Amino acid sequence: MKKGNMLIAQSGGPSMVINQSLAGAVLAARDSKAVGKIYGALHGIQGILDATFIDLRKESRATLEAVADTPSSALGSVRRKPTAEDCQAIFRVLRKLDIRYFFYIGGNDSAETVHIINEEAVKDGYGISCFHIPKTIDNDLRENDHTPGFGSAARFVACAVKGDDLDNRALGGVKIDVIMGRNAGFLTAASALARQDDDDGPHLIYLPERPFSVEKFVKDVKAAMKKNGRCVVAVSEGIADKDGMPILAKFTHETDSHGNVQLSGTGALGDLLAKVVKEQAGIKRVRADTFGYLQRSFPGMASASDAKEARLAGVAAVQAAVNDEMSSGSVAIRRKPSKKYGVTFEVVPLRNVARETRHMPDAFINKAGNGVTPAFIEYARPLVGALPPCARFAQLRRG
Amino acid sequence: MKKGNMLIAQSGGPSMVINQSLAGAVLAARDSKAVGKIYGALHGIQGILDATFIDLRKESRATLEAVADTPSSALGSVRRKPTAEDCQAIFRVLRKLDIRYFFYIGGNDSAETVHIINEEAVKDGYGISCFHIPKTIDNDLRENDHTPGFGSAARFVACAVKGDDLDNRALGGVKIDVIMGRNAGFLTAASALARQDDDDGPHLIYLPERPFSVEKFVKDVKAAMKKNGRCVVAVSEGIADKDGMPILAKFTHETDSHGNVQLSGTGALGDLLAKVVKEQAGIKRVRADTFGYLQRSFPGMASASDAKEARLAGVAAVQAAVNDEMSSGSVAIRRKPSKKYGVTFEVVPLRNVARETRHMPDAFINKAGNGVTPAFIEYARPLVGALPPCARFAQLRRG
To answer: Is residue B213 classed exposed, middle or buried when 0-12, 13-18 and 19+ CB atoms within 10 A define those classes?
Structure first.
């Protein structure tokens, strides 16, 4: 058994359960005789470069458990892709602290960072185990059936759209909800879990996996208005036209020559689509909400299975490094083939997860490209768990 | 004891507990020997004009209880101020159905509607009891210590800002959260309940009760960035300059000559403020979210005390009409002077509640006009209840 110090950090967008993975890894490490000091670097690799650390042996078990239940990245986060120079600097710090175990919790960019550091170590003949622990609300990591963080964000989205659909039922018109997901539509698709009755919204769902046509969109909204007398639309912030140009970029370019295109943290896409519906479909009451950062950091909204799996992903990474004496890898979640929902954790090569993302499979998207299939619902339901039940008067329910 | 049929309806913006008031009133009426038929009009007075009703004796108790726990207006809602002509038409329908008890759940505009119908009835010598049951997430009804719907919306806002503050802590920069409340700042002020530690956000709170100055705002943000290295801002959608001109209207006028000013259901104000901070404070990472309709209709977010009081407000209205044989009024919530939180319900004249709104008292707003006082926290805490606890590492907490 290799003995040495450990460093762990968090990277990319926060999630509601990223601290479960942190707590899982730290508690597993504290239980292992192979691990000496446990450094927590602040703000991902930035904290390694700046040598800003906390001692994760000093925090009480009660604090670790309370932090695990808290959304967002407790060690801070960063969006920094390391240059070759950064890598050398990181590597010098790791050597100086005699780090033999390195864990990085994040998405595909974070996996890429671990991959680079691992390759440098191999080149230099420095014996360090480099592991990536998966996290992304976008659910777009390859090799994974789903990723820690997705189930909880999907739970927020499904609850929000469920309430919003009731709101729209009360006052009518068109409601457009813009949901996170730059390249993958899983989170936007999760809005479909809001439906209880056949005439419940969302009535239309637009994903980045299918080209978005403004003409088709307006036609779809008119048809839904005709059928239901109202319309709730879930749309991904990442929708793009048939040439791959983000709709927001296109419209922003057309209407405003100043600004940069920014998908999250702005209400621009929702406002643009609302304007289109008002003008081109002639509907008076059109409203748009952009769910924004609430989707990934809302306290008390974590899905139970997501929280549990995030914890176990952290444990699995440490166990692979310490007990299995593997030198590197990324923990991947696989779904058991059994009818009853369950998962297993496997360690896969870093290069399989790094950089590139995965998309919604065709089987999850309807033929018209404006909704999801029952196969998606079946896939997503156990990740999200039961939602608060909502009821309507019997006399107001259709058939 | 007067005997007769009853009509009840819901009006204005939905809330998470407006169906509690409906269930409370209907169940109390079903228990009373004075009430015959119980009509539920769909979409407020529109349903009276259109003669679209459901029979609220037909719904099972289980359904009523399930509907009570469901957000948004189960009978549908409307934003229609009745004209003199409408009133005559409404009145004809009420007479035709032999309605002797009329209950309307809503805000100050709804109280105005009840007031007008009641005055018409008195003029005509038609014996009908007209009651307003309070509801508004804005918390701006006169005569009330607070209003049903506020506590739950405030709970959503406090949770959202709590998570958002953790998100901002992880990635830094400035985050602007735009919160509902056209004339009254109570809901925006409730963001302050998110704070656990001294350096927690929101660091700045802007309310419609104080004139908003862009220069002062930029200066405040710079100072907060200097102090905390990051800044979370809660701002009411209704902020206006010293001449009472809404900031959104002002900016929209300056940058876009097409559109009407619309406060909710658009991300424009947040985006405008973010642009100002980027340009005038020279801060790179600036994000804005507009909480939008999620604030009033999120399932599973109701505050326990809010749900209970909304139910009792419905019961109190029916009891006043049936047992006390009062001819009209609005149910008002009064806070008991006792140290332990508690409320009583009183029936007040309709004209005291109708039309005009109330604002945040001066004692709830800090001197600088960019935050709230401990007196506000003390006022709001019992209405919202305990929030999900969030934890940080001991080594990262100040002092």
So the answer is: middle
Block residue for tokens 């309806």? B9
Of the candidates B75, B396, B317, B334, the residue with the CA atom closest to the CA atom of residue A58: B396
pLDDT digits (tens, 9 = 90+) for B181-209: 988 999 999 999 999 999 999 999 999 99
Q: Which of A167, A286, A392 sits opposite B14 (nearest CB)?
A: A167
The token pair that represents A318 in the structure block = 């440490």
Q: Token pair 């499979």 is at which residue?
A: A361
Taking the CA of residue B126 and the nearest CA in chain A, the distance in Å comes to: 31
pTM (predicted TM-score): 0.96
Residue B344 to residue A202: CA distance in whole angstroms: 41
Residues B80-139 pLDDT 10s: 888 888 988 998 999 999 999 999 999 999 999 999 999 989 988 889 999 999 999 999
How many A-B residue pairs are in contact by the CB < 8 A criterion? 224
Using alpha carbons only, give the angle A183, A189, A190 rounded to the nearest 5 degrees. 120
What domains sit in chain A, N to C, each tagged with a CATH number?
Answer: 4-149+300-352 (3.40.50.450), 153-299+360-390 (3.40.50.460)
B184's CB contacts (< 8 A; 6+ apart) are B138, B139, B140, B208, B209, B238, B357, B358, B359, B360
Type and span of the H or E element at A35: strand A35-41
Q: Are strands B173-179 and B230-236 parallel, antiparallel or unpaired?
A: parallel
